[in-house]
Fold this sequence. Notes:
Layout: E1 2-5, H1 11-24, H2 31-41, E2 48-55, E3 58-68, E4 77-85, H3 94-108, E5 113-115, H4 123-132
Parallel strand pairs: 4-5
Antiparallel strand pairs: 1-2, 2-3, 3-4
Amino acid sequence: MHIKPLLKTDFAAWLPLAIGYKSFYNTPITDEELAAAWQRFHDPAIPIFALGAFDGDRLNGIAHYLLHVGCWTTKPVFYLQDLYVSPDGRGKGVGRALIEAVYKEATAQGAERVYWQTHETNEVAMALYNKIATRSGFLVYRKTLVC
């Protein structure tokens, strides 16, 4: 397995994993939203990135993360927005390898921390997360706005 940034030519391999991620959380996604996300990953003016975990030529997992500033730090912060491993890639260290790759990039960029969230029912993922990070104790609130 090797982890690398996704290239524009990886779109066909990325697409089923992106759709699988959204399906896992029962979140609808449009073709327009998928295209916009893919475009952002390859726009150097937008600090959002996509990594892939490859077993040979087969893409088994994806991680999307973004870099941002914070009010109370002088260093950048990395937000791991999405992490998804294909069903046949699970239990093989793919998720851990992707997170470790994000940690490595964050360290190279001088970031203060990497953080993410998951659904409270995602017990399998939380078993991994509890081994490689500290649970913050914060709850996430949100309000969806209709424009």
